[in-house]
Amino acid sequence: MSLIVQKFGGTSVADLERIRHVAKRVVATYNRENDVVVILSAMSGITDNLIDMARKVTETPDGRELDVLLATGEQTTSALLAMMLKSMGYPAQSLLGYQAEVVTDYCHGNARIVDIRADRIKKLLKERHIVVIAGFQGCDPDGNITTLGRGGSDTSAVAIAAAIKADVCEIFTDVDGIYTADPNICQKARKLSTISYDEMLNMASLGAKVLQIRSVGFAKKFNIPVHVRSSFSEEEGTMVVNEDSGMERLVVSGVTHDKNQARITLKKGPDQPGIAAKIFTPIADAGIIVDMIIQNTRAEGQTDLTFTVPKGEFKRSLILEKKIATDIGAEEVFGDENIAKVSVIGVGMKDNSGVASTMFRALAEENINIKMISTSEIRVSCVIEEKYAELAVRVLHTAFGLDRDE
Ligand code: ADP
Ligand code: ASP
Ligand code: MG
User: Fold this and answer.
1) What is the mean pLDDT of residues 49-55?
2) Architecture label for domain 255-399
3) Are 364 and 373 in contact (CB under 8 A)?
4) Could you say which ligand is closest to the alpha carbon of residue 208?
C-alpha cells in the first residue's frame, strides 16, 4: 500500500467527460489498496476567463477579491469530482485550500505556502476516504483566500505530498512527460525518463511551464519523487528526482524559451560608484524582479546599462528608469518588448567546455542576432528577437544532438 498524490491539470478536467475519466483513474489507484489524495486545477481556460471578467470590472482589480474569484475555478472541479466519486460508491470528500489547512503568506495572486497542517487530510485518509483538494488556493493567517500564481496547482500538489509524506506525487497533464524541449514547438523533442531537481528548476525558471517552479523547489527540499505523465495514457512519464539516482547525464538535457521578458537600456550614465544602486533600488522597492543585467564601460568614462524585467512590469519599469536617468544625468533610456530568452540547460555542462560557443554558432548560422548573454554552472541563456524564439529552440535542439531518431 502506498500513499499517492495525483494532480490533474486544466486540460485533464476540461469538461464532465474528462472529469469522469479522472474519476476512473483515481478509483483504479484506490482499488489497488493505495491511499489517494487528488489535487485539481480549474477547467482549462477558466482562470483566464475569470481574470478577463475581473478586468472588465476594473483595470486594477483588488487582490483579495480577485483571489476569491479565481479560487472558484478549482472549487468547481473538486466538487464535481468528489460528487462523481461518491455517486460511483466510493467514500470521497472535497476540501478547499483553507479546509486542507494550506497556510500562505499575505501576497494575493502569488502567495507562498508557509505551512500545511494536514490533520484533516490524514484523518480522512485513515477512514479510507479519497481526498479531493482544490489546487492553486490557500489562505493567509487571517483566513483570507489567497492564490499561488499561475500554474500553482503543481505547487499545491507537491507541498501537500510533502506534508503527508506521500510516496510519490503524480502530475497528470496534456503531454506524456518532460521533454528536451516543449514538444508542442519542437517535433523532434525527446521524452526524458528522468530529470534532476536542479535541471527542472532551471527549465521551469527559464520558461518550461510544464511544472511551476515553486513545485520543483518543494520537491527538492523535501525529496518528493515527482512523476510527470499523461492523463490520456497509461504510459510511464518522466521522474523528477535527485541527481545521483543513476540517471543519464547529458551535457545539455533541455532547451527552453521565455517570451515573458522585456529589455531596458540606460545609455551613457556616469561611470561612478553608487550609480547601479541608484538605478536598481527603485525597481527593487517597486517589487519588480530583474533578471539579466549587462553593463559596458565606454572609453569616455560613461557606462551603458541594460537589464530585463517581466513583460508585465515593462511600462512601470520604463517610467521609473526615465526619472532615474534624469536624476543621474544619463543621456537616454529606451526599451524593447519584442524579445525572448532562449536557454540550454544541463548538469553535464559543469565539466564540459564549448557549450556557449556551440550555442552562439548555431544561432549565427540562422542569422539570429544575440542581444544579451548570461551563464551559470548549468545553463547558458541568450536574449534574441521574439519572432525567432521557436526557430532558435529547434536549431539549438539539433545543434546539441538532442533530436529524436526518426
Ligand atoms: P496543466 O494544465 O496540466 O498544468 P500546462 O499547460 O501548465 O498543463 O503544462 C503542460 C504544457 O507544458 C505542455 O502542453 C507543453 O506545451 C508545455 N511544456 C513546455 N516545455 C515543456 C517540456 N520541456 N516538456 C513538456 N512540456 C513542456
Ligand atoms: N488554474 C490555475 C491556472 O490556470 C492554476 C493551475 O492550473 O495550476 O494558472
Ligand atoms: Mg500547469
Assistant:
1) 97
2) 2-Layer Sandwich (3.30)
3) no
4) 1
Please give the number of the atom of ligand 2 that sits closest to the Cα of 41: 7
Q: CA 271 to CA 292: how far, in whole Å?
A: 20
Set of cell numbers at residue 333:
533610456
CB of residue 184 inside a 6 A radius of ligand 1: yes
Quickly tell me which residue has 466519486 as its cell: 85
C-alpha 47 – ligand 2 centre gap (Å): 7
Q: What is the pTM of this model?
A: 0.92
What are the sequence ranges of the domains in the chain?
3-174, 255-399
pLDDT higher than threshold 70 for residue 406 = no
Q: 308-324, pLDDT tens digit by residue?
A: 999 989 999 999 999 99
User: How far apart, in whole angstroms, are the C-alpha atoms of residue 115 and residue 211?
Assistant: 21
What single-letter amino acid sits at 76?
T
Is there an atom of ligand 2 within 6 Å of 10 CB?
Answer: yes
| 225 close to 240: Cβ distance less than 8 angstroms | yes
Give the containing element (helix H, strand E) for 284: helix 275-285
Q: What is the DSSP letter of 286?
A: T
Give the DSSP H or E segment for 310.
strand 302-310
Q: What are phi and psi of 58, to 5 degrees?
A: -155, 145
Its CATH class, for the domain covering 3-174, is: alpha beta
E strand intervals along 160-248:
168-173, 194-196, 226-230, 238-241
Residue 99 burial (C-beta neighbours within 10 Å; 0-12, 13-18, 19+):
middle
Q: What is the pLDDT of residues 233-273, one digit of tens each?
A: 999 999 999 876 555 667 888 999 999 999 999 999 999 89
Nearest ligand to the C-alpha of residue 136?
A: 2
| 8 A C-beta contact, residue 7 and residue 135 | yes
Report CA-CA distances (Å) from 121 to 11, 157, 189.
Answer: 26, 13, 39
